[in-house]
Design goal:
Blueprint lengths: L5 E5 L9 H17 L1 E7 L11 E5 L1 E2 L2 H4 L3 E2 L4 H8 L5 E4 L4 H13 L3 E5 L3 H8 L3 H16 L3 E4 L2 H9 L7 E2 L13 H11 L7 E5 L8 H13 L5 E5 L5 H10 L6 E5 L4 H10 L2 E4 L8 H8 L4 E4 L15 E3 L3 H13 L1 H14 L4 H19 L12 H30 L5 H15 L3 H43 L1
Helix pairs in contact: 1-15, 3-16, 4-16, 5-6, 8-11, 9-13, 12-14, 13-14, 17-18
């Protein structure tokens, strides 16, 4: 086996969308490309986005669903995208989203004969329940997603809690834990960078600073945090709560903070793209508030730890795995009263908060280089197992359909390449369109020949043929569109 693998990474979210999984895929691709192998990322198209990375990015057709799920949904059956990915000589496919990305991964597997690894990052059932009101549709969608995951050749989870959650949704296969890392170096940001954050946000140096980084969604525990801060304010305590990020619930969360009379204490900084600037935010804070049971791993908790910042977490949550209360983190019950008690204790004993942060840096920090190298070695095992004579590939009832779609896409892509080749040939001859050549040839023959009438007849017939070809071309394009719409409807209903 070639040690330098060609790895295809797929996810529905990717910059310009910023979230934990998008960050994960970016770092996987960066670390792989930096010395391990070759990485290509397949992700939905975004308007006016130019990709400028050390690794390749293949964008495919998408639909604007940001108002529903926070990012664009991809159309996984685009022939040109599949054809481009096919040309990369892919050794292994790694999907990070159980929906459209994994459907694309399964379709791609039929073309390139490479195994699929799937990583379970988030509790997708919560997103489904938020987007769909019907219990029947919720159950059908969850069953479909689980079926998609079970079709993959190996399943990874980012924590034991994530694996238990996946099992609770009906997943019956095996999994292994493959922890995510962080792209921050171990250590605090420079004092100058921290001073800039203080000035930018108008932070009082004498006030304790609490921090949140991530998507602004209610299930991130914002009600718990804001209700607790309201209680703390009523005691006369002074503090800043800095919120970094954006999301579909941002407006409602900001309005709720105003309703609680926390507009002065809560600073909504928006999304911070610059990673060094974000390190300064973590470094300036005294404690990271992350009271959510939604997240299966909580990369932001490890980012905070890299900067010597401890986290307040829900007892028993996935993000709290490996956390010892009041040692390398602070554990609370999932309610505002417990959060208020924690904040009050930390304000009164800021030294405890800083000691927790130091221990977190030493004990739970994992760099991406270490995490991805471990995953890369596992890739080799999966590939070897997949190509062994006695390997029984995981299949589902939808595999035949995806195999057929892969064949259709391949045929359409070949037809497109043939058309482009013919067109290029005419361009080399100084003729912009094939029909232009036919027309010019007919005119020349009619003008120079003594048999003008015959030639005119030929020219008319040529024109008829040309128009017929055009009409047929448009009919084919319409049929292609109909096929795409049918496939989309089919998979939306049954997958």
């Amino acid at each position: 086996m070639n040690n330098r693998l060609n790895v295809c990474l797929l996810n529905d979210s990717f910059p310009p969308t910023i979230d934990g999984v998008a960050n994960t895929v970016f770092n996987y691709a960066s670390v792989i490309q930096s010395g391990l192998g070759n990485a290509v990322v397949a992700t939905p198209k975004y308007p006016n986005v130019i990709d400028n990375y050390d690794f390749e990015v293949v964008r495919y057709t998408s639909f604007d669903t940001t108002g529903i799920i926070g990012y664009r949904a991809g159309y996984p059956f685009e022939p040109s995208a599949l054809g481009e990915l096919d040309s990369k000589n892919i050794d292994i496919i790694h999907s990070h989203c159980p929906a459209m990305s994994t459907i694309l991964a399964r379709t791609l597997r039929e073309k390139v004969n490479a195994p699929i690894v799937f990583t379970y990052h988030t509790k997708f059932d919560i997103d489904i329940k938020k987007a769909l009101k019907s219990n029947m549709l919720q159950e059908a969608s969850i069953k479909t997603i689980v079926n998609n995951i079970e079709a993959c050749d190996e399943v990874w989870v980012v924590s034991e809690g994530a694996g238990e959650n996946l099992k609770s949704l009906g997943y019956k296969g095996d999994y292994i834990v493959m922890e995510n890392g962080v792209d921050f170096p171990k250590g605090r940001a420079e004092d100058d960078a921290v001073a800039e954050v203080n000035e930018k946000l108008g932070i009082n140096d004498d006030y304790p600073v609490f921090l949140f980084v991530g998507r602004l969604m209610w299930y991130k525990g914002f009600k718990i945090t804001l209700d607790a801060l309201k209680t703390i304010k009523s005691t006369g305590a002074k503090f800043h709560m800095v919120v970094v990020g954006d999301g579909s619930d941002a407006v409602d969360i900001k309005n709720y903070a105003k309703e609680l009379d926390l507009a002065e204490e809560c600073i909504f900084a928006g999304a911070v793209q610059d990673r060094e600037e974000l390190r300064a935010y973590y470094t300036r804070a005294d404690m990271f508030l992350f009271p959510t049971s939604y997240d299966t791993n909580g990369i932001v908790v490890r980012e905070a730890a890299a900067c010597g910042l401890g986290s307040v977490l829900i007892k028993g949550s996935c993000a709290a795995e490996g956390i010892r209360d009041r040692h390398n983190g602070y554990l609370i019950n999932e309610n505002a009263e417990s959060m208020a008690e924690a904040i009050e204790e930390l304000i009164d004993n800021i030294g405890l908060a800083h000691e927790i942060g130091k221990n977190a840096m030493e004990e739970i920090y994992v760099p991406w280089e270490e995490s991805v190298k471990k995953a890369y070695e596992r890739y080799k095992y999966v590939i070897e197992k997949y190509h062994s004579p006695d390997y029984v590939r995981k299949t589902t009832f939808t595999d035949d359909a995806l195999n057929g779609i892969a064949g259709i896409c391949d045929a359409l892509n070949k037809a497109k390449r043939f058309r482009e080749t013919v067109t290029t040939g005419f361009m080399d001859m100084g003729i912009s369109k094939p029909f232009e050549f036919i027309g010019k040839r007919a005119e020349l023959m009619a003008a120079e020949s003594p048999f003008a009438g015959l030639r005119n007849g030929i020219a008319e017939k040529t024109s008829e043929i040309k128009n017929g070809i055009k009409e047929r071309h448009y009919e084919i394009k319409e049929k292609q569109t109909e096929i795409k719409e049918y496939l989309w409807e089919y998979f939306d209903r049954y997958l």
